[in-house]
Design goal:
By secondary structure, the protein is mainly alpha-helical. Helices cover 73% and strands 0% of the residues. Helix 6 crosses helix 11.
């Protein structure tokens, strides 16, 4: 069996194993079980849960508007309604993408089909959107981590915080270099593009740099929007925690817990960060706050936030049922493209390449 056929099973097995471990570890501790009974005691503040959903919806909508702005900046004909439809569909497919096909690749395929003469530019918008989103997540986490005393935290958390800060600094330096005119046209960029297997991915990045280098105003606005996204998602997790438990971490502490957990969840080993987000958030729950909290409380908060993200994915499901033929056709295009990439001589100069997830 080929690895690409095993990959979907692996992406499901990883979150299943993580969630099983977390639930078992909490269920085997009587004290944590007693704390979890608070959820079913009728004391849940549902107005905070509802607020958490609305805040998360606002954050997700901003990510879609961010991509929409990137598209129209290049002069590509694209409507706001079309961006919302593809954005929510892409969010859904990050959870249930068949064959490891995620939302980013799906959006790129659909947009490229609508822009047949400017396919490379269509793919560049998705690349830039993902890079800025990841960079802003690192920046938020690094900046807020400077306000927290990690001396009492575990070595894992201290190392993780330092690693995020280093990545944020490196990302800032690389971003500055990429915006210099000579970077995307120099010998170093030619070397990256010429690398086997990954050369086409670097080609997309270089194309994106050339397209947006002359629009620093747009990049700055998109950076601000990205910061808002992570601040809002952290507030959504904060609302879930205070909606479920009478005492929970402060918002300042949640600004550390949530982004750091999402950095870990960004590792592409599970669809939508399923399992990895819960693992990171439940662990950080016991390490970051000044007040003592249990892993079970962290897991309950994580599962509550997961329920909200699934609710957001249902919006994408509605768009899916209204556009089933288009979605299925896009998947066929993706599968054909992946088959071409497996051939040694194929797709060396194609603007389409593997998912930038």
């Amino acid at each position: 069996m080929k690895f690409k056929h095993c990959l979907p099973l692996l992406r499901l097995a990883v979150p299943a194993a993580i969630l099983t471990y977390l639930i078992y570890s909490v269920a085997s501790n009587p004290d944590q079980v007693a704390n979890l009974r608070l959820i079913f005691s009728g004391g849940t503040r549902w107005y905070l849960i509802g607020l958490a959903f609305l805040v998360a919806l606002a954050a997700l909508t901003i990510t879609i508007l961010r991509w929409y702005l990137l598209v129209i900046t290049l002069g590509l004909p694209f409507t706001l309604v079309g961006a919302l439809r593809l954005g929510f569909l892409g969010y859904l497919l990050n959870f249930v993408g068949v064959g490891g096909v995620g939302g980013d690749l799906f959006k790129a395929i659909i947009l490229a089909r609508q822009q047949m003469e400017r396919r490379a530019e269509a793919f560049a918008t998705v690349v830039v959107d993902r890079l800025i989103g990841l960079y802003s997540l690192l920046v938020v986490t690094a900046l807020v981590s400077l306000t927290i005393d990690f001396q009492t935290a575990s070595l894992i958390v201290q190392t993780g915080a330092r690693a995020v800060r280093v990545c944020a600094v490196v990302g800032t330096i690389m971003g500055g270099l990429m915006l210099m005119p000579g970077f995307s046209n120099g010998s170093f960029s030619e070397f990256l593009v010429g690398l086997p297997k990954v050369g086409s991915a670097f080609q997309r990045v270089m194309d994106a740099i050339r397209l947006y280098r002359g629009r620093p105003d747009v990049l700055a606005l998109i950076g601000v929007m990205s910061l808002m996204v992570h601040i809002l998602f952290a507030f959504s997790v904060y609302c879930v925690a205070h909606g479920v438990f009478p005492v929970a971490p402060t918002y300042a502490e949640m600004l550390i817990i949530s982004p750091m957990a999402m950095v870990f969840a960004a590792i592409p080993i599970a669809p939508g960060g399923l399992g990895t987000l819960e693992l990171a958030l439940s662990y950080l729950y016991t390490q970051v706050p000044a007040e003592s909290f249990t892993e079970g409380e962290g897991l309950s908060t994580a599962l509550g936030f997961r329920a909200i993200t699934i609710g957001l994915a249902f919006i994408g499901a509605l768009f899916y049922w209204l556009n089933r033929d288009t979605v299925q056709s896009a998947y066929r295009d993706v599968e054909q493209e992946q088959d071409q990439q497996e051939k040694p001589s194929a797709n060396e100069n194609s603007p389409i390449s593997a998912e930038s997830e």
